[in-house]
Amino acid sequence: MYLIRASLCSLFLLFSFLSYAxxxxxxxxxxxxxxxxxxxxxxxxxxDKNLIxxxxxxxxxxxxxxxxxxxxxxxxxxxxxxxxxxxxQTIENKSQNIEFSVNYYRRSDSGK
Length: 112
Known about the structure:
By secondary structure, the chain is an alpha+beta fold. It is built from one helix and seven strands.
């Protein structure tokens, strides 16, 4: 019984340490008129332009991404949704809240 308790305590401490070593980037993507944009792809790139992490916004346009604190900044966070203009921001690797406002993208009819 003691061995099981000791093992559980050790696991709890390990997971606590791992979650402490991460920054939380939370945010929301909205359209130019303020409507939340669910289904928007969010990517975070390192200063070497390699992919660090990614997620997709929920129906309410909100997202949350964890990033290891050891990754050097600055980082680039991108929001991309079909039929909307690409949006990007430069951020530091620290816990923070971000809001993106993206405009609807309308292709011109070049064939007419």
